[in-house]
Amino acid sequence: MIDISTAELRKGLGEILNQVQYGGSSFVVKRKGREVGAIVPVELARELELLQKKRQTAKDRLLQMMNDREGLNQDVSEEALMEEAVHETRAARRAKR
User: 52, 26, 62: which is closest to 41 by C-alpha?
Assistant: First the structure.
């Protein structure tokens, strides 16, 4: 990713968008040295959005499965739930082989 300031973005927006669209470049926009946003190809942004939706769906399904189990410990952390889901998914894949 290429760092650019908001001033550089204002001056060269057209060229930056061309680099993103045609060259696949990605930019991190900084204001006063702090990252405030990013400019990325549309395909990458859509892929990220899809991954976020899939992650949320998997998390919701996992929480529902855990709530359906007997003796659920309500203090189970999200990380522990994710680790268990990964373990169960890998075990299911190995069983299919």
Answer: 26
pLDDT digits (tens, 9 = 90+) for 50-95: 999 998 888 888 888 877 775 555 556 777 778 888 888 888 878 8
Tokens matching residue 47:
């892929």
Distance CA 4, CA 7 (A): 8
Q: Reading across the β-sheet that carries 2-5, which strands appear in turn?
A: 2-5, 27-31, 34-39
Residue ranges per structural domain of the chain: 2-40, 46-96
State the amino acid at position 81 in one-letter form: L
**CATH 2.60.40.420, domain 2-40, yes or no:** no
d(CA 65, CA 59): 10
**Which spans in the chain are helix H?**
6-11, 13-23, 42-68, 78-96
pTM of the predicted protein model: 0.59
